[in-house]
Amino acid sequence: MKPREGRYRFPVDALGIWLSANVDRMSPEAHSAPRSLAEALRARDDSSLAALLRSRPDLVTPVPTDLTQLATRAGTRASVLRALERLDRFALQTAEALAVAPDPASYDTLLGLMTGDAGDEAVAGALPRALHALREQALVWGGDDRLRLVRTAREVLAPSPQHPSPTGLGPTVQEATSGMSPGRIQEIVTTAGLPSTHDSVSAVAALTALFTHRKKLARLLAQAPEAAREVLSRLVWGPPYGQVTADPAAHLRWLLDRGLLLPTAPGTVVLPREVALHLRAGRAHRATEPLPPAVVPAASHSPQVVDATAAGQAYTALATVEELLKEWDEGGPAVLRAGGLSVRDLKRTAVALDVSEPVAAFWVELAYAAGLIASDGEADERYAATPAYDEWLEQPPAERWVRLAQAWLAATRTPGLVGGRDAKDRTLSALGPGLDRSAAPEVRHRVLSLLAGLGAGAAPDAESVLARLRWERPLRGGRRDGEEGRRDGEEDLRSRLARWTLSEAELLGLTGRGALSAHGRALLGAPPAARSGSSAAEAPGPGSSTAGGHGAEATQADTTGAGASGHSASDASGHRAAGGAGDKLPVHRHRVPDRLVPLSGPEQAVAGAEAARLLAPLLPEPLDHVLLQADLTAVAPGPLRRPLADTLGVLADVESKGGATVYRFTPASVRRALDAGRTAADLHAFLTEHSRTPVPQPLAYLIDDVARRHGHLRVGAASAYVRCDDDALLNEILADKRAAALRLRRLAPTVLAAPTDPATLLEGLRAMGYAPAAESAEGDVLIARAHAHRTPPRAAPEPVPDGPPAPDATLLTAAIRAIRAGDLAATTPRKPVGEPLAGGELPRTSSAETLATVQAAVLTGDSLWIGYVNAEGAASQRVISPVRVEGGFVTAYDHTADEIRTYPLHRITGVAELAED
Amino acid sequence: MPRVNGPLIVQSDKTLLLEVDHERADDCRRAIAPFAELERAPEHIHTYRVTPLGLWNARAAGHDAEQVVDALVQYSRYPVPHALLVDIAETMDRYGRLTLSKHPAHGLVLTTTDRPVLEEVLKSKRIAPLVGARIDPDTVVVHPSERGQIKQTLLKLGWPAEDLAGYVDGEAHPIELLEDGWALRPYQKQAVENFWHGGSGVVVLPCGAGKTLVGAGSMAQAKSTTLILVTNTVSARQWKHELVKRTSLTEDEIGEYSGTKKEIRPVTIATYQVLTTKRKGVYPHLELFDSRDWGLIVYDEVHLLPAPVFKFTADLQARRRLGLTATLVREDGRESDVFSLIGPKRFDAPWKEIEAQGYIAPADCVEVRVNLTDSERLAYATAEAEEKYRFCATTATKRKVTEAIVRRFAGQQVLVIGQYIDQLDELGEHLNAPVIKGETSNAQREKLFDAFREGEISVLVVSKVANFSIDLPEATVAIQVSGTFGSRQEEAQRLGRVLRPKADGHQAHFYSVVARDTIDQDFAAHRQRFLAEQGYAYRIVDADEILAEGAA
Predict the structure, then answer these.
(1) Which domain does A732 fall in, by range?
(2) A633 CA: distance to closest CA in chain B (Å)
(3) Out of B1, B47, B540, whose CB is closest to A697?
(4) Where would a tag sit more exposed on chain B, N or C end, judged by fewer CB atoms within 10 A?
(5) Is residue A167 included in any domain, yes or no?
(6) Is the pTM of this model over 0.80?
(7) Which residues lie across from B38 on neighbouring strands?
(8) What does the pLDDT average to over A231-248?
């Protein structure tokens, strides 16, 4: 780093304090007002700019060269949309109000639009905070006397016939009359009772003045027929458009004549914005929501019960993951070709785990997210436990849980989607592609921190959590989210994520009975809960009126900014230390710790250790004994130590699971244990050792009975046998040294078995001087006559000609054309742009240069030589004549391919002009 | 952190494990008994199961979800999964949303406290034909004849209706208990009381615990004409005998309606068999139900109630119904019909508890494994599948073992029970004992039973006709040589034969003779599991031990 940048190494806060003092002195009122966003940004201090970049991380990738470029980028449509989507509902409403206000608007105008003529304390109180948020995000600039919404935001939010505004307001009189004949405008002006003017512009201004003048307009409206007022009242809250026939009724005509309704298209009229605002008593929104809806507790349990329940569930989570991995221990299910688990395998897993399929999908995804399972990458790909699983298994239970829970918190994979369909109507399978939703960790964290905001033991009402999330991040104008596979009537993605979070947190044992447990709280890095829950904990107080909004942005920035979490979290921890004074300037503000931010790596480790410490004593201690009963069951009244559980799992079948485990001994299960190499005596000793009660007689009998028959029948493999009624002869063969190679084994006095094939055995015995006869499967003596040997059905070999077949005419023409074009590309002398190129290398130019050159080529009609990398990553050189450049694509005649093609600009590595002949 | 060490463990499959030796086990048992069915009661840990029927039974008995949840939370050793508690509360909440009651103007009506539920059930195709006009948004008329049908259907839809429509009194008839020298046992009194209070329902008592007396007690409460439905004629005679002995009823007041007699008296005892006899596609004896204005209907051995009787019962919902049984387990799984048509469980006492109170004899259960001889094994291996059981169940070795056991208990009352007549005849011959089988006339049966009771005969060989309801008070040893394919309910009945309290407090013995390594052993394992689950520890011995003992 260069020395002059050294000051950036100071903690931002130290600078913040220093700068805030300075900026207070040089408030915008004292300077000339900024004339552009760039100037407004230039006037901002560093920490305030840092806040902007933190809340809109897309502005720093790549780093802009100067503030003008930053302002330009902040004004691009994509970036503005992104910023608007991240506003809370009130800030968005404020922006919407600014969009329908004159540009620029004063603070009082905005306040009037937000509160209406009647005024609204809550709105008036919350407005500075919302405005601050908008300013900080560079969506609004200018002093309080000249508030300006960034032009792109204005275009997005302002009402237009194609995109009705959530405000339900129509165009202004000026906009609506823009295409009207001057004669008609004069007629309207006269009918409305105004003097006629010389030109349309002053006529419209007069009409606007009339409509914005409350008293005059009220007088005019008072004369309106009853039916006309009724029509207006129907349009006032939007949509402001209405249909009229070619010959409108008298009351409509009355309105049309006075410009209270203005025609927009044949048969369509609109209520002008000024009139609507008058009828609404000045309010831009029917209902404003200045304060976040409180998260309401639905039930309250004692913290002990919550912690115990959550711990119980945490233990179940560990047991379930272990069981899942055990189930897949000897080769899990196959990986689908498209990736993921087949529906059938998921069903099977669900049955094995004794849970529903969505829940099974959750456990599978959890193990995957925690790195405990993965595809084995073999030719026939299967899922299997990773080496990390074995390490995980060795850890103490509480730490194992922390690992699972932290993996879940950070995962972008959302098991809730499993079973649904993506945009291409393909089923989304567990562990498969298409399950990542980048909003998931943020929503999870937000939901849990809302829970943490309640008192200990308080379980929230799910709907109130959802309402809060919707307030914090409303869908703009009910716009569809771009979420794949959405069907009508389904909730938006964030609400679904929030619901999944609540149910998954319960499954995982972060919450118990719906309330956040102490260990869950610790895992989030939240302070221990207050005894009495205050759901309004997050409503910002007067002294910190701007901090809440900032916190929201910081949270969002952390989860969206790539790799930024470490730096911003340390920032945040610094912020917690100091407090700040309130004003309306976009000066960096010190946050109060009312919102939790995701933790950085080291903080996570600390939080994890704390969670483990809290959880550990709540987890049941593994037992080393079971109770044996005469109905051939064993009951483990709690979790068992692992070696005991493993042995018992072989010796008996699990009949029911939960706090305890019920095992049932059956002949088959005992046989399984014997097959596993244990003897009856072992099993008796094992049961006696681990049973608290005497081993019931029927159980002991069962083991002996199964052992008695176990191995009674023996099965082995042999390829050939020797049979002879004379034992002595067989003895002789066995004793013969030459027979050693035949590896004969005596099965019975008159039978020897050999692992060699019958023919070899026959030869061997013949060589030893015996005269054996071959025997058929039925026991007959086979006549030893050589059979004619046949192969299985085989096809005759294909002829192998000397070279490839002669190409036909079409192929030849195509080939020649390709060769010529390639030749042209390679040999055309080119005019180097920038540095000269080495032979065969792709031209390299910066993207700006590329764009300029290509655009120039469109104008001049020149051919260019380009380097191009296709979607598969293969590089090629082509000669093209660009036709047009738009939307990041070049459409050009490609000499190499001899057709018109379209190339994405970003795939073009560089261009070079062709040297003139 | 101090951990509450409760006696109860709640499993994820909704079974409850109760540690019997725990100091709070008794309190816990009492707390969970109203809603959880005891499934297994071996020596250390009892298993209860929570089912929707059980929860609704509890609701019918006036318990609410909070009590149930409390009981679980209070006694549970580990935290109870939240989902299970929610599920319990939701299930219990379904009962009583709909009620059947009498409306002064419209007669029988179905009312709801939750309108969407009524809307939901009325949409069902199966409910539509059972209901009439909608009186108001919460009430709909039900055809009186469909009272049973609608209850059955609603239960299937998962919205069991509470039946508050009341009962007709029926034709009055004076009946008193004659408690001279005996009295109803406390649990019997409790059972009668619970039943009468609930209106209709089922009383579950083990064999030998005096179910007949619960019936008699209920009749004395009802004081009205009574129809008693029993499994067979012998059982009918027994009921009659008992009623004459225990109540003010005389022989003339009690009629028997069976294959042989068709008497209809103020108290009539009918067999299931005669009721379900079908001639030319109709049930000719159905008139019995309408022949009198019955005030009480008693169903003996509810778990055996044949399907057609359910159908008749559906039409009898205005009469009080008492079901008596040793177990609610039906091999055909129609427990829900018993619940909706006869009524919820009103009283329940496990065998062990009544045994502990000294009302039934403790039993020593032994399984004797006999080895088939080599030639028998070969024959068994080659036998046709359907013949296999018969073959191994009737092996000759069993005879020798049976003889040895009979010799061992010489002087005591011994019952030999079996399935196959040939085998029983042969045993009877060797043991020099009379054989009661299907073809034995009723008169002959009664005579032999009397002789056995009096001690004139000490060994009696019976086929499965003796499975139900005959009273053999002094049998102390039962030997089962073959059975019907491992039926749990049969095992219960047979064990019941020896569980009657003995005059001298003798221990009862229950022997099963089983051929080793055959399907006989598999069936026996199934039956024995039931025994063990009922808390009867059993031993397994080899036939050689018994034979050696006999020879010594």
Answers:
(1) 720-767
(2) 9
(3) B540
(4) C
(5) no
(6) no
(7) B48
(8) 82
